[in-house]
## 1
Amino acid sequence: MILYKCRLCDKKNMFKFLDLGFHPPSDQFKKKKEIDFPTLYYPLKVYSCKSCGFKQLNYVVKPEILYQQNYPYESSLTITGKKHWKEFADSTVKDYNLAKNDLAVDIGSNTGVLLQSFKNNRLKIVGVDPAKNICKIANKKGIATINSFFDQKAVRKILKIHGKAKIITGTNVFAHVHDLKLFLKNIKKLIHETQGVFVIEVPYFLNLVKNLEYDTIYHEHLSYITVIPLIKFLRKFNLEVIDIQEKDIHGGSIRIFISGKGNYKKKKSVNKICKNEIKAKLNSKEILLDFQKKVTKNRLYLISLLTRLKKANKNVVALSAPAKGMTLLNYTKLDSDFLDYATEKSKIKQGLLTPGVNIPVYSDQKILKTKPDYALLLAWNFSKEIIKNNTKYLKTGGKFIIPIPRVKIIKRVK
Ligand SMILES: [Zn+2]
């Protein structure tokens, strides 16, 4: 579905500032026997609204296509991730005086890592997630999870069983929702009127531009969040932003705390972030088109590096196969001519082929067996942890290529 008007303000006044071409959905890994099945490609272009400044894709791939039965992302896999979710729950419980048996609802709860931390704080918990396989894993672990999108039906079910929620979280979910008006209507129904806090955590567009994180653009991410347009939008629902915290995860995210107007005192962080956004001129066509230029250059540089390596008969593989890596591979068209294989910790992706460029995925151990000359680090946001986990590979002469923000080679320091 092509989007002709802004998701937030409904004005038909948008301009394109980044064109990454056509891509298959980043989670559509194929079985090997399906290699000759056709792949559907959808446009991946980002627009900015001239009226409110909101950044968004102009094409919405149907959620039924994107969030399939077997969604291959498990959020609990990295140590960095686990620590992050624990800090999230612990600090929120403390800051908003959440007490025993207060209800915490997590939207897009995945395998329940965040909810587990709320549970450890003695809160009542409910998760909502559309992926069947992921829900099974969560429920098995004792994290009560409703297998559904966050819709009216799910809200009714939660209200009936548990009543209103003191805390609702949506981490890396808000940017995935097409109908944000309906989404917020449902939040309003579920949230406690005077004490409820709705917390979203999203990759921050300001960092995306600053650090050239264009690979965080994929079809699931329909919106690229800045705070100023969001504040205006929330006003329509009598909601306001009360605090914003900047976090390192996923290349720089922001955690936005929202509540009913007047419920809590607004923290200084809100104005500070708004000022930063104005200073960064994120609505300026010139700044945004300059970003596109830098993205193109990054692509050309990466292609020429890999071309050079392949001409010199070097073996190159991709280390980790996150959704963002699929944007990078399909944008740069780095296929099996360049990359022998990809590795991935998540068992769900192992044995499959990456979307579009069809690179076979194996477990992380393969890299020690085949000792490739170079490993392209697609999950560069976890590079510290991944490099640490692979010191053996470095010691035996292996080199890492970090693609973003600048193409960089990391080798063992002698
Ligand atoms: Zn707008």
## 2
Amino acid sequence: MKKLSPQQIAQYRDEGFTVLHEFLDRAAVDELLAEIDILTASATVAKHDSARLEMEPNQGPDGKKVRRLYEPCTHYARFRALSESPGLLDAVEQLIGPNLFFHLSKINMKPAQLGSVVDWHQDLTYYPLTNTDSVTVLFYFQDADAYNGCLQVIPRAHQRVMEHTVKGVFQGRVVETVDTSKSVFLEARAGSAIFMHCLTPHASAPNLSTKPRITLIMSYRAADAFPIHLAMRTEAQEAHARLVRGAEASAARFGLNSFPIPRFPRDTKSLYELQEMSRHGLATRP
Ligand SMILES: O=C(O)CCC(=O)C(=O)O
């Protein structure tokens, strides 16, 4: 495991992200990929456990392409161990301090020739916290490039919350103009980890290549960044939150003066579903 260099920490603060190349070695990545193979082996569009995973649309009932595994760091020991591994927590601590909560995880599969688009968004708009000391860590499990849908970010755009709401309803994606001329493709080898500020706008293209692009995404927050309570949505999310380093906080620390409250159109299963509804103008009040 490696630590972040002073330059990487400065890049995270100034630009909203940094990349630790080949943070995991090949053997570690292969073990995690083998686990994913086991977890997804029997899933088809017609028959799968929809509480644990989501299938790619646009395939027949026998289609086996999985789009997302929900909360792997809660459900599966190998991923949970990675989320609590000292080397990873050291790097997260370098960015947001010594008292750390883990708060969510997902595996986005982006299968070859089918993998779904992810529209521009800022993570914190989905789960407002009392301050912005929250970092998303995204691991590539395969080499990722512009062709198989690597992550794209807009550097230096994490100081402001962008508009994600139309007529009072949260769309799950940025609805103002995004200056994509400034976007950067974060190409990196398997095992690399991207550390991204919770307000960094990011997106990824559909995978039109012949190579899959599997990523594990985990979010951490400072222990004094408390969730702003959004009824059952927050309660469901908090079922996955746990202290992973240091001590719990007895007081919330407040960062921004105000923060938009996402009014979700209905209980969408994932970002993909919400963004899809939004693209079709269907993310409206229930
Ligand atoms: O899989 C990706 O390329 C990014 C996904 C993402 O940003 C998310 O799921 O919140």
